Amino acid sequence: MPRDDVVRGAVLLCASEFVFALMNALIKQASVTLPTATILAERHWLAVIALLPLAIRRGYLDFSAVNLRFHFARSLIGLAAMWTSFYAVGHLPLAEAAVLKMTSPLFVPLIAAFWLGEAVGARIVWAVIIGFCGVLLILRPGSMSFTPVALIAVTSGALAALARVIIRRMSAGIAAGEIVFYYSVIGAIVTTPPALTTGVVPNTYEFGIVAILSLLGTGGQMLMTRAYACAPASVVGPFGYTGVAFAALLGWIAWQETPAPATFSGAALIVLAGWLVMRPRP
């Protein structure tokens, strides 16, 4: 593998994590005045409008050729993951929300083992144990600093892992653009009723924030896709944990958030566990 490809992949993945950290900072800012449902509804409708020309051109609207069962399953799970993620980001320190969401790789082998019957070796078992020890350090259940919202962030990681396994199980022959389009359509349909019941209409400033965070989300996804096209996930994947550092920096700059020492210790264990999970099998 050319060294330049590895360097390029690492730089692109770090860039994507910085963009995602900016997106989460805007989500946190928007959550001050907007309900999560309103933010999600606007984000999904903007995505539908942007992707509709592509869907028409590539025939994604031909329902006879579309696996609607897959799209509904993937979209509803993915939407639940995004909803819990947005809520957690809006109510937790940025760094803590970022760390807990990064538990997603720990859930993937567990779900794949129970659902797909995939073998799980001793290394993966130890990785999961180490990772969840890190989660307990951050959550500190039973202490005065414990907040139930942190459990929502962990739930987001688990749901994101389930969405990934569904894609791996059911997406053979389905274009990535089709998956994103139907996810946006179903997300827009599902989030609109609860958004309307809030009675909150975004003003121009709030609409602009959500529009920008939507663009950042798309840009971050594109950078991440290009990063993994340059080099294997086992090589560049660990650079994805730079997102925690970016989140901590933005949280400190914008909200004077300082992560507790236990958060740093827990993050180190989760990063170690994630690295063990991503390592290729010997």
Automatic annotation (TrEMBL):
Keywords: Membrane, Transmembrane, Transmembrane helix. InterPro entries: EamA_dom, EmrE-like. The chain crosses the membrane at residues 6-27, 39-56, 76-94, 106-139, 145-167, 179-201, 207-224, 236-255, 261-278. GO terms for cellular component: membrane. The keyword Transmembrane applies. Residues 8-139, 150-278 form the EamA domain. It is a multi-pass membrane protein. It is found in: Membrane. Its main location: membrane. PANTHER family: ACYL-MALONYL CONDENSING ENZYME-RELATED (PTHR22911), SOLUTE CARRIER FAMILY 35 MEMBER G1 (PTHR22911:SF6). This is EamA domain-containing membrane protein RarD. It comes from Plasticicumulans acidivorans.
